[in-house]
Amino acid sequence: MKSGSWLLFLVAAILSGTDALAQQYTNLLNNRSLAQWMLPDGADIQQGWTFDADGSLHLSGKGNNILTREEFGDFDLWFEYRISDKGNSGIKYRVAKYGNQWLGLEYQIQDDAAFPKMAAEHYTASVYDLFDTSSPILQRNYKAPAAWGVGRVIVQRHRIRHWMNGNLIIDEQDDSARFAEAIQNSKFRGQENFGRNQQGRLMLTDHGSEVWYRNVYIRRLDGKPLVP
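and the corresponding structure tokens:
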């Protein structure tokens, strides 16, 4: 089953409360509320991030980055996203405090067509500034402009995977020499243990662009069997 179809199935199953797997997921936008999120200083979110009439979370204007109040270890994250023309945003995970900065690995989200000269490590579904794709045979599956995309991130036992609209894009090991080399060649070199911390928050980024999210579901995989 394709990622988009599976997400629709998952949402329906959660709402009906009939599927055992679906019941393991937590809705991070439950009841159109940001109660599970906070500003970097721990304060409640007061502006910028609001819910549209269709229930989607919309960043319009200055809202700042927002973080989950809880930390996550191994997890399976599903979400739908939509980015504005020439927009740039992303979902970060394993987010931790480095000096005065909150940093983490990022599932990049942007209007790729608007940035043809940008480094491939910044394209949608990349691990921002680290990996474009994990293999030349892994291809992005673009939808029409203004359409909702479906993303998935699985982090489990050092393995990190990203999907874009049902296509696997990233499959990396955070304890590999390849991963360490990618960090050394990135803007994150010098940040001790960056991306290899086993616990961290999620972050929705504010890069000055309008972005929308809906159906953001996560389940914890700590101690669970490996997800194929």
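(Above: one complete record from the training split.) The chain has a mean pLDDT of 93.
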